[in-house]
Structure formats: C-alpha cells, structure tokens
C-alpha cells in the first residue's frame, strides 16, 4: 500500500492523505489550507491525482482545515462516498455552505477591483451549489461501527474528543495474507473538556499517524479556566459593563454556553449576578451549530448527560437569546444594559463581532474576553497586544475596555496529553508518522517520541510518498514537489496586492491623509524592501 501526504504535513492546515491499495484510491480528510496568501493559493492548485478516481473519503471531523476542499474535490470530478460520523455530517451541512459563501464573497470583492483595473475575472474555489451537491454523498457512521469496504480493507471510528463528532480512524488492511492496523489520531482533544467525552484509548496499532499541533508545549492554568471565566463575567456585570466574547462559532461557543449554564444551575452569588442579565449569541453559524449539538446529546459526556437527565439542557441557559436577523444584530449594537455577547469570528477579522467591538471598545466598563488563539496581524491579536486605537470599518476606535484572555481553552491535546494517549496503548506502534503541526514543533516532538518509545518516527513533507506493508515502511518516489510555477504564482499574487496598496499609499500622501509619524515608520520598511528587491534582482 502507498500513502502520499498531500497536506497536513509540516503544516497545521490542509490535512489530506492519499491511499493506494491494489488499484483502489481513497483519501483520509480533504482540508483547506489556511493562513496567508501563499497558503490560500495552495487551495487553488489542481489535486495531484484524478479526483474521479477517488472511490471514497474518510473524514475525521468537520473543521474546515480537514473538510474544506471536499466541495472542490466534487467540482473536479469526485462522485464517491464521504464516510464520517453522524454529527460531523450534520455540522458539515452548515459549515461547507458557509465556507462556499465566503469563497464566493471574497471572489466577488476581488473581481470588482479587477474589473476596474481591466483584469480577467476570477472563479471561486467552489460555489454554494458544489457544497450542496457534495453533501448528498455523505454517509453517517456510528462510533465503533465497522465499515467493510472490501475483503482487504475496513475501518472503525473512535471518539477523538476534539469537537462534536470528531473521530480517530482505525484502518484495517490485509496484504499478502497478513493484516495490519493503521491509526490516524485526527485532531486529538483534551481530557475533561465540557460536553465532550475524553479521547478514546486505542488498544494499539502497527503504524500511528499522530497530530502535533501542541507537540512542544503544555496548556497553562487549565484547572482555573472555569473560575476565571465566571470571575471576569461577574466583575464586569457588577461594574455595569458588557462582556464581549469573540468566539469560534462551532465548538468554543457551545463550550462557553455550557460553562455559563453550569454556573447558573447553582445557588452561588455569581449565579445570581449572571441570571440578572441577558446572554446573546450573535452568529448565524453558531446558532445553527448549537441546534445540531442538541440533536446529538448521545455524544455528550457523563456530566452533560446528567444535566439533561435532570431536565436541564446545558447549552441553553434560561436567559439566553439567539440573534438571528441583521436588524436584531443592529438593535443589539444599541443595547445599553449589562449583558454577555458571544459572537464570531473568533479572531475578529470578519462577522458581526466587528460591529460589537466598534460599539463597545470605547467604554471602560466593558470587557473583551478572548477564549481562543489570535493569529498575528488579526484585529484580535492587535487588541491582545495592547493597541490603544484600532481601525474597524475604516474608523479609528479608542480602546478603553478591558482586554482579557483565557489561554487554557483549546481543542487540541498538549504534549503531555499526546504522550499519555500513546502510553496507554497496550501495543505500541512500530512506526510513528508525525502530522498536522508546524515543522519546528514536529521535529522537536518527533525527537521526544523517539526517545520515549524507542521507535522510528517520521516527519513527512508535503508530496512525499511511503510504501507501507505489514513488515516495513519505505520511502517511495515523491508524487509532487513545490513547483517553480507555484512559487512564481505566489510571488506574482503578492506583487499584485502590493501594487494595489502602493496606489492607495500614493493617494493618501497626495491628500495628506497619512500622519507624518506613520510615514516616518513606513519609510524604513520601504528602504528594507527596496534592498531585498535589489538582492533578488542582482543576478537577473
């Protein structure tokens, strides 16, 4: 059998693994690359295989970096089955159309600019129609249900504890009369996370493919995150302020709602404070996702199940209100009482959260509470870094609100959790492939794995192919590499963006719209850029 690492290799996003077994081709995951412009361009590359030859896809969970290119796979000719859990199937039914809407909106914006410049119009990565059509090919599978593809291939899903419906994939393969077992950890969750069950401990395997998002770090202050959340909320409300929580629509929003509902169910002083204010969820995607959680209470852990048994649905505290229409959201912008507002996007780059920040950052009584990672160059990161003024919708907003961050919220196991999960296997893997992580983190994690388990550890690169058999693993020919044409495309796209920004800069200087202080800071960066360009063109 051969496996090729299409994505999620020496990177966190774009998870996609191609298997070839006795003429049969299938994928585990088919995710979108996320990050900067270079990563975005990877999504537009042709697949390094013929999508029409892929018989089926095994999907570990609904997050877009694992599922987001499935509509493109369909657009390019795939007509097979996508096997996934029932909950993942339902979450994809809202997340893939939402992703398609984003693709179409972004291209529409770019095409308006290109039309003015007389440039050729672009096509979206995929359309809403592509997303809706491929959803018809999804098939729901229960945890523990064995799916027999043919006499030589079967698989089983186990709970990964990462998000609702997330799965560890156990692959059983027969070759030359011998059976061996591969395990994909998928995105492995933490223990003792609200709502979700702990990651399932696997008996063992021959070959393990393990994620490494946090393979070099430990989560901090996990035990106190619930107390810190409630303390921040109660302190702000007691001071007459609002709590604004930028949150990922699927997973994190439901976790925050659960924590609040859990506190409200008690007789504590904090519960009395929170009961007296309204809680608003202002995100259409989060509203739909919360309804899907309600449909799949059989996935909940024992604590959440006990709430339900006692007649309390733990994702809908009594003072919760879902904001649905744009008009309601505008009304909420003018709401002048203490309240809790949970809205997306989690990094404040898009969505309704930007309106709530614009209307509430100026007030020193308010608190903006971050419960997720904030990537560099995002509005969320600028607020976390302590900027006193930020631009929102072209308007400068003074930051007087308190900015808080609870770092302990994470959907991924840390280094200790990953090691513990492997240690509990009764049969340790012969070889380990480290996937789904940044290269430097993976190399560090791989070294520790090798020392701790005395086994061979491989950190595959994108495009690398390996031949796997019951007795051995061997590198095979590389299916593809980072082609010069792709690098050229990336650089040309960057130049196009820079040209647009330079035109805006010229206009700003002509109109005296840019302060001397900003121009002074920009000048040194322009000098450095000119120097780098001269180096690059030295041999031209």
Automatic annotation (TrEMBL):
Name of the molecule in the record: RNA-metabolising metallo-beta-lactamase
The keyword Hydrolase is assigned to this record: yes
Domain of life of the source: Bacteria
CDD domains assigned: TTHA0252-CPSF-like_MBL-fold (cd16295)
Sequence ranges assigned to domain Beta-Casp in this UniProt record: 253-383
Keyword annotations of the record: Hydrolase
Single annotated GO MF: RNA endonuclease activity
Signal peptide: none
Keyword Plastid (UniProt): no
Domain Metallo-beta-lactamase: 13-237
InterPro entries tied to this protein: Beta_Casp (IPR022712), MBL (IPR050698), Metallo-B-lactamas (IPR001279), RibonucZ/Hydroxyglut_hydro (IPR036866), RMMBL (IPR011108)
Protein source organism: Caldicellulosiruptor hydrothermalis (strain DSM 18901 / VKM B-2411 / 108)
Pfam families xref list: Beta-Casp, Lactamase_B_6, RMMBL
PANTHER family (alphabetical): CLEAVAGE AND POLYADENYLATION SPECIFICITY FACTOR FAMILY MEMBER, INTEGRATOR COMPLEX SUBUNIT 11
